[in-house]
Amino acid sequence: MSNTHTKPSHYLITGGTGYIGSHTAAVLLAQQVRVTLLDNLSNSSRTTVDRLQSITGQNLQFIEADLLDTVSIARLFEEHSFDGVIHFAGAKAVAESRTDPIKYYLNNVAATANLCSAMNAAAVKKLIFSSSATVYGSEAPVPYTEQTPRGHTSNPYGTTKAVIEAMLEELCQADSEWSVVNLRYFNPIGAHHSGQIGEAPRGVPNNLMPYLTQVAIGKREELQIYGDDYPTQDGTCQRDYIHVMDLAEGHVAAIKELDKAGTHIFNLGTGTPVSVLELVKRFTHITGVDVPYTITSRRPGDLPAFWADTTKANSELGWSAKRSLDDMIRDSWSWQTQNPDGY
User: Fold this and answer.
1) Which residue among 4, 15, 112, 211 has the highest number of C-beta atoms inside a 10 angstrom radius?
2) Total domains present in the chain
3) Is 157 a catalytic residue?
4) What pTM did the predictor assign?
5) Which among 136, 74, 68, 52 has a CA at the least distance from the CA of 105?
């Protein structure tokens, strides 16, 4: 037997203390992969680092820095040897992006350009990018497939994701040493089964599940459902909800694609649409907690229904979402009840 020990891989995770970044770190750490977390803590907590170390029994390095700080980012790559980068950092509230688009172009597009520039200088040319189903645009037929071209995005958040995807494709065309995986997410919910890490938005939640659980625990009076006159089974919007741990495992499965040059695109979803009302009713059934809600007018830019075709991720990555909607609800509620005020 050979006594050769290969050095464990080392990945930089930007936005590493955020919701999806922290769960991806948990999966990588459980597989003995070295990770360094980078975050500016604008929408997350340093407590996440301690929780991750407790959950996994692994040490990890955390660096507080902003991707807009080019000096700090250049120094980071000079001082560390990374095998690749998993890039989650960015602003992500659709409604806020409409009122403050400049923030989104700075924190998403400019920050990613800074990151890629530092990676280029350090000859670290492997990147997994946290993209979004919003890049398919409002006219795309459902289910969305990776062959569908990027469409007309309906908000600045979605536009910044599409611009970054285009920038990364052009980077790969300009330099054949680059390898990029664009992962287009659908709607992540749920939390780590330990209840120690989960979604902890600052202020009013922008996403349905944390808002719903905050109403259920008594932090908020009622849930607002935006429109019940859509062309869906019960009139409320349908989305493809995916457990955040399945999503995290999708990132780990995508790492092997980084051995191939060029750009690679994968949808990460379940392929099953669930309406807002269905989710609320299922939540009550699973938890036994009634969630008061009112129906209000539609929100601008909301699409009636979209969900993923996951055939490509199933066949090429060997990945599929394994956790059920009931698992997503139980884990979201476990996180909320154990951490009523977040971290």
Assistant:
1) 15
2) 1
3) yes
4) 0.96
5) 68
